[in-house]
Amino acid sequence: MILSMKALVIKEFTVGEGDKYIALFGDKFGKIDVSAKGAKHYNRGLASGTQLFVYGNFSVKKTRDTYKLLNVEIIKSFHNLRQDITTLSYASFIAEFLNEVTQENSSNKNLLTLTLYTLHELTKHRLSAKLIRFVFEMRAMKYLGYLPNVYSCTNCETDLHYLDKHTRYAFSIEDGGLLCNNCVRDTKKIKLHIGTIYAIRYILNAPLKELYYFDAPKDLIREFCVVSEKYSKFYIDKDFKTLHFINIL
């Protein structure tokens, strides 16, 4: 059976002298591992089309539970991600994140579109790569089924659409969202300014093409990054190798 899909290369590794295996995250079939014969040295078309971050139209032959790459038409190579080590490192984290959280036959078009916008944003150097990472993670959590509750109390369901500007609200990682003042009994819960809560709401709901077009004071950005990191780490319990490198940059 011949399959055709738009997909992003999220992992590549060499097998033998000239062959490669790649992991594709596509719009139809989720993540699949594909063999690319001769892609390392002997087939120039496959060599350029099987590099990390390449987004393209892939033609794949499926035989039982194996996939073989037949052809690829590159739509975007994201070559500029390799211009500096910081940008490349954060882009590599996003690829590793996808490789860990996605599965075969489980398409997630929203997550794929989010990733493409995020990789493009990393090449622009308008926002810090660190902030882009945490915006990506927070929005990705929504598409992975871990949407945080930022509109009502996760304990008593009190409506929190309208926030008191003089109040610092608590965010519970374990409960998955905001807590009203009456339900906050643990002083270790993360306290947030309302500006941070509004920023989280924007990041969860903004059109993807407008996701990275915002500005906020440094203290709110710092609060948001803390929440996003702890939230994704709690629900996606993975040891990402790329983060070890990012943390020493």
Radius of gyration: 20 Å
Structural class assignment: alpha+beta
Distance from first to last alpha carbon: 45 Å
Q: Uncertain segments of ≥5 residues (pLDDT<50)?
A: none
Number of structural domains: 2
**Top CATH class of the largest domain:** Mainly Alpha
Shape-level CATH architecture of the largest domain: Up-down Bundle
pLDDT averaged over residues: 90
Number of helices: 7
Question: What is the beta-strand fraction?
Answer: 15-25%
Structure characterization notes:
With 249 residues, this protein is an alpha+beta fold. It folds into two domains: 1-77, Nucleic acid-binding proteins (OB fold (Dihydrolipoamide Acetyltransferase, E2P), Beta Barrel), CATH 2.40.50.140; 82-249, de novo design (two linked rop proteins) (Up-down Bundle). The protein has helices at 44-49, 85-101, 109-124, 129-143, 194-205, 218-235, 241-246; strands at 2-15, 19-26, 30-36, 55-63, 66-76, 169-172, 177-179, 190-192. Helix 2 runs parallel beside helix 4 (129-143) and helix 5 packs across helix 6 (218-235). The longest helix is centred in the C-terminal third of the chain and has 18 residues, at 218-235. The protein is elongated and about 65 Å long. It starts with a strand and ends with a helix.
